[in-house]
Task: structure prediction
Amino acid sequence: MRRLKIIKPSATLRISALAKELLKEGKPVVNMSAGEPDFKTPQHIVESAINALNEGKHFYTPTRGIPELLDAIAEKVNVENGIPAKPENVIVTPGAKYAIFLAMQVLLDEGDEVILLDPAWVSYEANVIMANSKPVWVKHDEKFEDAPIEDHITSKTKMIVINTPNNPTGVVYSKDFLKKVADLSIDHNVYVLSDEIYEKIIYEGEHYSIASFEGMFERTITINGFSKTYSMTGWRLGYAIACEEIIRDMNKIQSHSVSHPTSFVQYAGLTALKGDQSCVEEMVRKFRRRRDKILSGLNEIGISYIYPKGAFYVFMKVGDGTEFAERFLKEEFVAVTPGEAFGSYREYVRVSYATSDENVDEFLSRLDGFVKRFKCQVLSFGNDLKSRDYGDLNG
Ligand SMILES: Cc1ncc(COP(=O)(O)O)c(C=O)c1O
Result:
C-alpha cells in the first residue's frame, strides 16, 4: 500500500536493535530509551485480574467495555478532569494507542490535514497517514510551551493533536495555551485530540483537560490509559472520551477488529481506578527523585535541556542527536532516543528515566565521560518537517 511506504520504521527501533545486540554480547547496556515505567504493576491490581479469571470472567465482554469500567471512567473524568462525560461517552480500548488509531480512522477523510506539534510522540504521524490524511508539523516556540498553530490552519485542517504532559519534552501546557487551542478549534471548526496519558505524572504545574473548557466537549477526543499511571504497559488498556456519535463509530471499528480489550484486564483496570491511589503517588515520588538527580547532573556537566515538569523524559540538546545516540550506545553502552524520532529536532536526544536508580547513576557517570569526547556544540540543522513530502499521499 502506498501510504505504508511513507511510514518510516521509527528511529527508536534502530537504537533498540543495536542495544539488544550489545546486550547479547554481554555488554553492560544501560537502557534510557524505553517509554515505560520499570515498576511492577501494583499487587492489588494484579490480584484483581487473577480473581477475575478465577471467577470465570473470561468471556467476551461488550465491545465498548464492561459497564462497571465505563461508569468508573465517566465518574473519574467528571470528578478529576471536569469533563461532563456519561458512560455513553466512553470506550475502552487495548491501549491508548488503539484509541488514537480509532479516533483518527473515524474522524479523518482523504485529504484532511492534522496539525502535529513538533516534536511529538512517534505514533501520531503514522496514525494520521494510516487514516489517509496529511500531517502538518508546527514547531513549538523556543520554550516549547506554545506553538503558532494559527498560522497553519487551512480549510483542510480537521484536527489538532495535543499531548500534555508532553512526550518527549516533559512540558505541561498552561491553561492559556490550551485556551488558545480551544478558541482556534471553535473558530475554525476543527477537532482536538488531547492525549493525556501522562496526566498523573506531574511534578510542577497543573494538568488541564481541554474537553472541560466551554464549548470543547463536543469537539474533543480525550485519550488516556493505564500504561503509565499504573505501570500497566503490557496489559494493553486505554480509553477515549468523546461525544456519543464519535464513540459509536469508534466502537464500530473496534467491534469488527479487536472486539474489545481482554476481559480480565478490564476488571484489573476497574480496580486500578477504584482502589488505593497511594501506589501512583509512590511511583511519581520516585520519578521526581530521578528527574531531580538527572537535572542536577546535566547542570553540572553543562548540557542544556527543556525543563521537564511532567512525564518521565528529558529532551536534551547535544549537537547531532543521531550521531550522539549511536556513539553513546556503541562507546558507553547507553541507549537514548535520537530527537529525529519525534520530528525535526535532530540536535536533541530523549532520555527516559523510567528506569532504575542505579541506571540513572550509571547514565550520569558514563555521560560525563562521553561528552568530553563528543563535541556537544549546538548546531541548527534546519531540517524542517514542513518540507517533508506528503504531497501525493492520496494520489
Ligand atoms: C504520548 C503517548 N501517548 C500514547 C502512548 C501509548 O500508550 P498505551 O500503552 O496505552 O498504548 C504512549 C506510549 O508511549 C505515549 O507516550
Observations:
- Residues 35, 95-97, 121, 163, 167, 195, 197, 225, 227, 233, 238 surround pyridoxal-5'-phosphate (CB under 6 Å).
